[in-house]
Amino acid sequence: MEEVRIALRNVGEIDPISVEEFRAHDGFEGLKRALSMDPKAVVDEVIASKIRGRGGAGFPVGLKWNMVRDMEADQKYIVCNADEGEPATNKDRILMSGDPLSLMESMAIAGYAVGATKGLIYLRAEYPYLFPVLREAVKVATENGFLGNNILDSGFDFSITLVSGGGAYVCGEETALIESIEGKRGESRFKPPYPGCVGLYGCPTVINNVETLMNIPVILTKGAEWFRSVGTEDSAGTKIFTLCGNLNRRGIFEFPMGVSLRDLIFDVGEGVCGGELLAVQLGGGSGPILNADQIDVGLEIDHLGPNGIALGAGGVMVINDSHDILDIVENTMEFFADESCGKCTPCREGTIQLLRLLRKIKNGRGHLSDLENLEELAEVMTMTSLCGLGQSSPIPLISALKNFNDEFVSILEGRCDLW
Ligand SMILES: Cc1cc2nc3c(=O)[nH]c(=O)nc-3n(C[C@H](O)[C@H](O)[C@H](O)COP(=O)(O)O)c2cc1C
Ligand code: SF4
After folding, report:
1. Ligand 2, atom 8: closest residue by C-alpha
2. d(CA 345, CA 355)
3. Domains along the chain?
4. 187-202 pLDDT per residue, tens
5. Is the beta carbon of 80 within 6 A of some atom in ligand 1?
6. What distance in angstroms lies between residue 95's CA and the mean position of ligand 2's atoms?
């Protein structure tokens, strides 16, 4: 299957920090076009493209930019979310190492569109080797007049600073990320207010994922209509998928939204290795766990079908039948119990209780009533947790309960009453 590379267009094609090679591949053309337009027209072009965020939540990018643009403020910020903590994804790392100048270009376009003069890249703490690459890219972009003061004689100033992540999964959540940049403990804030109104240091702030931003220069050069012609009605453009787990071919691959999950596994991934297909976890650690009969589905940002499939950050973790599905779920739930920041009770206590109930069932000590308790607890967590971590952490467990019900029930039917 042929890839359609928009975000990955330059990766592997150019020397990542050569301005000459970058320009030979249309580098900075999107910024030049943006600077020739009224800032409001740039926002309108992004709105018209219908691009939605690639960091997980899928919020329309143009609407976010418009909100920040409309705010009256002396200072506004563009923050690139490069925290990439989602298990089973590593696309942003590849984008930043292979094409850092596109990221600089995108952030400058965003700054011009919304009236921000400062940008920050919040880089995952576990990617320290990317600091020199990004630092060099900022340097060469500035030396060549694409960052800094009076960019390309337009009168527009924009600078980029690098910030190291806090080393916790929750720091990728946009408000925890802001707290972390401000030097505080990485804990999510109450929303509203949203960062677009009250963000970094209290100023209106655009926060976008790396992959989201990498699409922006192409939208400016090829136009919103072209971009909308790729993908589906609700999810325009392409998505980068991280294929991992028990596949013959693993890696990151970019396809139009709507691509079939079966094709990703059996064509792009060249099929399952080490056994037959047991399950697929889609989106990342907080994504649903599907069984082998559920892979005939087109992948969009939010495919609200009967299985509640959502694309998340694009992870496709394939699991063969040498694994026990309860082990897989336990591993995932351990992750969330460890990573809960502890600020709100439903998530702090709920993630631990979910894990305890699961282990009780797994160890043959469960009762059928535990399944109801799990579902009730999951519902409370989804409705009352402060941020997406607590709200979505029950998804792997609840989806596995539904999609692998026989496995759970057979353990429960052989339960030990002595517990
Ligand atoms: C627990 C948690 C972790 C997150 N981690 C990331 C992350 O590593 N990278 C990212 O871009 N978005 C992450 N997000 C989503 C961000 O809060 C935010 O929606 C995103 O950065 C917005 O960018 P986008 O609109 O371009 O997707 C996370 C959300 C939650 C709840
Ligand atoms: S939901 Fe979890 S991670 Fe988010 S604020 Fe509450 S305790 Fe912290």
Report:
1. 341
2. 15
3. 19-228 (3.40.50.11540), 238-320 (3.10.20.600), 325-413 (1.20.1440.230)
4. 999 999 999 999 999 9
5. no
6. 29
